[in-house]
From TrEMBL:
UniProt GO BP: peptide metabolic process; proteolysis
Keywords: Hydrolase, Metal-binding, Metalloprotease, Protease, Zinc
A family per Pfam: Peptidase_M3
Cofactor: Zn(2+)
Ranges where the record places region Disordered: 44-91
Entry's cofactor comment: Binds 1 zinc ion.
Any GO molecular function: metal ion binding
UniProt record similarity statement: Belongs to the peptidase M3 family.
Domain called Peptidase M3A/M3B catalytic: residue spans: 300-609
Protein name per the record: Peptidase M3A/M3B catalytic domain-containing protein
Domain of life assignment: Eukaryota
Endpoints of the signal sequence: none
Xref: PANTHER family: PROTEASE M3 THIMET OLIGOPEPTIDASE-RELATED, SACCHAROLYSIN
């Protein structure tokens, strides 16, 4: 939403009055779209004709007939008819959805429809009407959360008192309706479409269990806030040119500006007191470096000064080990342990892993998967470790007795040529990379992103002027025969840059606003005026991941609750697939072009994007912390923050060949976020393994080395071919998922 509180209020009130006079309610119209007739596709199998057993989801509710159709014939038809019936006709205007009164009116109508269902004589009709009314009320509450996040409802800051009242009223209607529907058998979890099973669980349990669920949400929010503070850092370091030796200029430029200001202020005071003329030497070569994760990501791999790395390392991890992060994590683990036992599970890991694939459905099974991955990674990790140890001997005079783990990031960057990532940024201008990434993702999924002309953003619509609107069409751009409105799957709203007035960095994400409308917030730091924004390879990979979510949301059809209730390994597989695809060296040249010359990157730079064994080793370490602390092997109820720290380090060390530094806190890495989000984050490992198998199922082992020979070029053509995209759509993107597995919990 645009940042103009007074103007927003006036325009939103006028738009609401217009709807009332016309007897319209856009909230109801937005959710009245007919649900698309989603094509029932074969089982989730490899896109090749081999390895079906390793890639097919173990689903006891699937019919055996699905397994007999895994060998699909390639189709060259440009589009499928799976998702056109309920596609929206025009882009969404946030201004129409900014009235709390109209939202409450839509909720009231859904609640009234449920009350009327009890008077219907036919039980089948009554059940259908009741479940549809409750699904509509759930959709409205889910829509309210998204609109509040976008700033369209409740204001840009905290919700207004009136909107808070409307929210409480709607939630009370939903709770009452759900209890009545469950009591009289009018609502059937897992069978009636559009029902939020997780929300039903929170409402229909005993009051004491519901109170624990509320405490879990509060404890999770507390830990996330504590992690944010730790990631931002609690102080600064003043470093000199010699401290930052070896660091590229582009990585320290913003620190130099802050350091120059500090030095200039001191020099000004010295000039006044001593009557000196000219600029003081205090202004030169001083850098004010925040002790946050962004600084860690810059300094630890590239700075050649061991003393500077040690100072930052200790200051950063001290904020986690001595701060409130461990206490907040322990509080969350205790609540989750009690809640899991109340729900009939031995641990929180057992509760959260149950909806996932059979390979990780139990904590012990998930641990075995991690162990096997670590074992199979050893041969690939050995050469890198040997090279790092050789480099450590040469750096011994700089490290002054530090453990090898203390300089691990620096040695790994030297051994793997991570500096190539910085050079590749020259080939990733944000605007051009966005356009070409959409084309690449579209070719791989048999869709086409068309920029909506006229840019329907601004004061009238409510969208910020920086939001780009695309309509997603079924089939390639050259598809003929069907009108564009018949091929439309929906609209995607891309927010490329974070607002300059934002208080903190927002994480990238994609969210389904309503059927046919997806918001993708990339939230990159905006460039200075007149300059070109260059993305890092990690930024480009993130872009591919989020666009994968958008394609999945629009292709699968269905409502918001149906997508949210997907098990995590199903929900994240399409996005992870596009992430892994974008990391393939032969695909990089499809979206990477030099910002000045327009040429593709050299082979050596393109290969630097590929996710190697070190990437997956770090994944194993971070996932191990979340899984181990949520399992029975860690007793949160009787543990102290110091014991939590020791247990986290032990879980981290299980998959690290290098001993952890005494001051190291795993929660300062991705393990902190994995712990807050839950034990089911191990699903990401399954998604990476499945995505890799989908891409390389027909390749021999020699083809997985990252070389960009002729065979690799042929693989890229195959991945972006209409035949491959058609199979990807039918087996992965368009495929519905039954809700009985979650409902059984």
């Amino acid at each position: 939403m645009i940042r103009a509180p007074g103007l927003n209020g006036v325009l939103s009130a006028a738009r609401a009055a217009k709807q009332l006079l016309a007897r319209r309610n856009v909230f109801e119209e937005l959710l009245e779209l007919d649900k698309p007739a989603v094509m029932v596709a074969p089982g989730l199998a490899s896109l090749s004709n081999s390895n079906n057993n390793s890639n097919t989801r173990d689903n006891s509710n699937s019919s055996n007939s699905n397994n007999n159709n895994t060998n699909m014939q390639p189709q060259t038809a440009p589009a499928s008819s799976s998702s056109r019936a309920g596609a929206p006709s025009k882009p969404l205007e946030l201004r129409d959805l900014s009235s709390s009164l109209l939202w409450l009116q839509a909720c009231s109508k859904a609640n009234t429809d449920f009350q009327m269902a009890s008077s219907i004589i036919s039980r089948d009709v009554a059940a259908a009407t009741a479940s549809r009314s409750i699904a509509r009320l759930m959709s409205l509450l889910r829509l309210e959360e998204v609109l509040c996040m976008l700033g369209a409802l409740g204001g840009l800051g905290s919700a207004s008192p009136y909107h808070s009242f409307c929210r409480r009223k709607a939630k009370s209607w939903l709770a009452t309706s759900l209890r009545q529907g469950m009591k009289f058998g009018l609502v059937r979890p897992g069978k009636d479409p559009g029902l939020d099973v997780k929300l039903m669980l929170r409402i229909c349990v005993e009051d004491s269990t519901a109170e624990l669920m509320e405490k879990e949400q509060l404890a999770k929010a507390h830990l996330l806030r504590a992690l944010d503070i730790g990631f931002e850092g609690s102080g600064t370091l003043t470093l000199s040119e010699s401290d930052l030796v070896g660091m590229p200029e582009e990585l320290r430029r913003d620190w130099a500006a802050a350091g120059w200001f500090t030095g200039a202020y001191s020099a000004h005071n010295q000039k006044l007191s001593e009557g000196s003329t000219g600029r003081s030497s205090l202004c030169a070569g001083k850098y004010t470096v925040p002790t946050g994760r962004d600084s860690m990501d810059r300094i630890m791999p590239y700075c050649a000064s061991a003393s500077a790395r040690q100072r930052l390392f200790e200051a950063y991890h001290q904020g986690f080990s001595a701060g409130e992060v461990n206490s907040a994590a322990l509080d969350l683990l205790r609540v989750r342990q009690s809640l899991a036992r109340r729900l009939g599970f031995r641990s929180w890991a057992a509760y959260e892993l149950r909806p996932l694939a059979a390979a990780v459905r139990e904590p012990d099974a998930a641990r075995q998967v991690l162990d096997r991955c670590w074992q199979h990674a050893q041969p690939a990790l050995a050469p890198m470790l040997q090279k790092m140890r050789q480099l450590a001997i040469g750096c011994s005079k700089h490290s002054a007795g530090d453990e090898v783990a203390h300089i691990e990031a620096y040695l790994r960057a030297l051994a793997s040529r991570e500096s190539d990532h910085l050079k590749l940024a020259e080939f990733l201008p944000a605007e051009g990379a966005l356009k070409r990434m959409l084309e690449t993702v579209g070719r791989a999924s048999n869709v086409f992103f068309r920029h909506v002309p006229g840019q329907p953003t601004g004061i009238a619509t409510g969208w910020h002027s920086g939001v780009r609107v695309y309509e997603m069409l079924d089939g390639p751009p050259s598809a003929a025969g069907s009108a564009r409105q018949d091929r439309r799957l929906g609209f995607v709203y891309v927010d490329l840059y974070q607002r300059r007035w934002a208080r903190r960095q927002l994480a990238p994400g994609a969210v389904l606003i309503a059927p046919g409308h997806v918001y993708v917030g990339l939230h990159y730091q905006a460039p200075s005026y007149g300059s070109t924004k260059l993305l890092t390879p990690e930024d480009a990979i993130t872009m591919a991941h989020e666009f994968g979510h958008a394609v999945h949301m629009l292709c699968m059809g269905g409502c918001m609750q149906e997508y949210d209730d997907l098990p995590l390994d199903v929900q994240e597989l399409p996005s992870t697939f596009f992430e892994v695809l974008a990391a393939q060296s032969s695909v990089v040249e499809e979206y990477a072009r030099h910002h000045a010359s327009g040429g593709p990157p050299p082979d050596t730079l393109a290969r630097s994007v590929q996710q190697g064994p070190q990437f997956f080793a770090r994944k194993l370490r971070n996932l191990s912390v979340g899984l181990g602390l949520h399992s029975e092997e860690f007793d949160a109820g009787n543990a102290s923050p110091r014991e939590l720290q020791a247990a986290a380090v032990a879980q981290w060390q299980r998959y690290s060949p290098i001993k952890a530094h005494p001051g190291f806190s795993p929660l300062g890495e991705d393990a902190g976020m994995y712990l807050a989000l839950g034990a089911n984050q191990v699903a990401y490992l399954l998604c990476y393994l499945r995505a890799d198998s989908l891409l390389h199922a027909n390749n021999n082992s020699n083809n997985n080395t990252g070389q960009r020979g002729p065979r690799s070029k042929e693989a890229a053509k195959r991945w972006l071919s209409p035949e491959f995209a058609t199979r990807l759509r039918s087996q992965l993107l368009d495929r519905p998922f039954p809700g009985q597995r979650l409902a059984s919990l």
